[in-house]
Write a structure and sequence with these properties.
The structure is a single chain. The N and C termini lie far apart (about 110 Å). α2 crosses α3. Among the domains are: about 20-35 and about 45-120, no CATH class; about 135-205, GMP Synthetase, Chain A, domain 3; about 230-270, no CATH class; about 280-335, no CATH class. It is α+β, with helices and mostly antiparallel strands. Strands 2-1-4-3-5 form a 5-stranded antiparallel beta sheet. It contains 9 helices and 12 strands.
Length: about 400
């Protein structure tokens, strides 16, 4: 999605609003929600819901109570309550949909302890906020240098200033517990602000930083995915995927969240499927399973002494042979159960009508073109004028 200020410029390039993550219309933000109730009026006598959703840097969103009944709409910059001082954020959702979001995130909307919205941000609040945001890259770089000098095994991934500029939250990732007491002292002395350290996971780090996945789209965690479920290698095994860490891992270094998207469909299809380690006892010998196609319900088996020749069997045929083996009987051979569909012909997906299908067509030596000979004509040449004897 994109707002109207992200239209194309004169030279064909995207113009962009240049707000760097603080888009006022919330059209190109992370985890944005479309308010499909915005053009509907409330029933007579019903008061509007007094809690609004406010977005801060990156994907951090919180709920605040509009105790002063301010006329807020999506895109308003507001000053909100904080532990000390005030913070500045952008309203991303108002109305009854906020109640639905709070139920989804398991937040009690009847809680009186919800933080409040102080006021709409004044120009002075916005200037201080933008000035603090501009300091974040330099402070992050300097904080990393201090952490390296103290030999701390941690990675500072992001810095977020409070709206009034009095406090900065440093987000970091680490494999184990880190003693950063000296780091806080050095950073407080260097930056003259209050410091808060907050450890996040690798998936949360990718969510905050964003990026493009191997599929060519924005990361799911930074656009719409809010809950991070555990992903195991069993999800890849059920889907017949090769256990290649380079392909299965995302930008966070963990297994991709999309491995769970189709897992339920595969588990449903595998309920009445023969096990992949099944052995079929035939008169020709024991056969082992080599390959499985779940949705075509086809299994490929080969004999123990003939690994090169695979035989495609339907799921029902494999179950029938396994039932015979349980009774102590052997099947005649796998060839009797192979389904040969004579009506199935390979469809030509592409056909070059020009005839240039050969890859080495340019390797052939060029033949010299022979010049066409002009056809001979039987026209008689005129006789030469002979000299007469009188002239001699």
């Amino acid at each position: 999605m994109g707002c109207s200020s992200c239209s194309t410029g004169k030279d064909g390039q995207p113009r962009g609003c240049k707000n760097n993550g603080t888009c006022g219309s919330d059209g190109c933000n992370k985890l944005t929600v479309f308010d499909w109730l915005s053009n509907m009026s409330l029933p007579s006598g019903q008061k509007p819901f007094d809690v609004v959703e406010v977005r801060f840097k990156n994907s951090r969103k919180e709920f605040y109570r509009n105790a002063e009944d301010l006329p807020l709409v999506i895109g308003d910059v507001v000053a909100t309550q904080a532990k000390s001082g005030h913070d500045v954020g952008i309203v991303t959702l108002v109305g009854e949909l906020v109640k639905v979001q709070m139920k989804k995130k398991k937040v009690d909307y009847t809680d009186e302890a919800l933080p409040k919205i102080y006021r709409k941000a004044t120009q002075r609040d916005i200037d201080i906020w933008q000035k603090s945001r501009d300091r974040e890259p330099d402070i992050q770089k300097r904080a990393r240098e201090i952490a390296i000098s103290l030999n701390l095994q941690m990675k500072l991934s992001d810095v977020e200033f409070q709206g009034d500029g009095s406090k900065a939250t440093f987000y970091y990732t680490a494999e184990s517990r880190v003693d950063f007491r000296q780091l806080i002292k050095d950073m407080a002395k260097a930056f003259s602000i209050r410091i808060e350290m907050r450890q996040i996971g690798y998936r949360q780090e990718a969510q905050r930083l964003g990026g493009i996945g191997s599929c060519g789209r924005e990361l799911c965690c930074s656009t719409w995915l809010t809950d991070f479920r555990s992903v195991s290698t069993a999800s890849a095994r059920y889907q017949q995927l090769a256990l290649n860490p380079q392909k299965l891992a995302g930008q966070c270094g963990k297994l991709k969240c999309c491995l769970n998207y189709e897992l339920d469909t595969y588990l449903e299809a595998l309920k009445d499927f023969p096990p992949q380690d099944a052995k079929l006892d035939t008169e020709k010998g024991i056969a082992f399973c080599q390959k499985v196609d779940i949705f075509k319900e086809t299994l490929w088996f080969c004999y123990k002494n003939d690994n090169a020749n695979w035989h495609a069997l339907h799921k029902s045929d494999v179950i029938e042979i396994m039932a015979l083996n349980k009774k102590g009987k052997k099947a005649a051979s796998l060839e009797e159960y192979v389904n040969v569909d004579e009506s199935h012909e390979e469809k030509i997906l592409f056909e070059n009508v020009v005839g240039q299908d050969s890859l080495n067509r340019f390797d052939k030596p060029k033949r010299k073109k022979r010049k066409k000979r002009k056809p001979k004509t039987n026209k008689q040449k005129p006789p030469r004028n002979k000299k007469s004897p009188s002239n001699a």
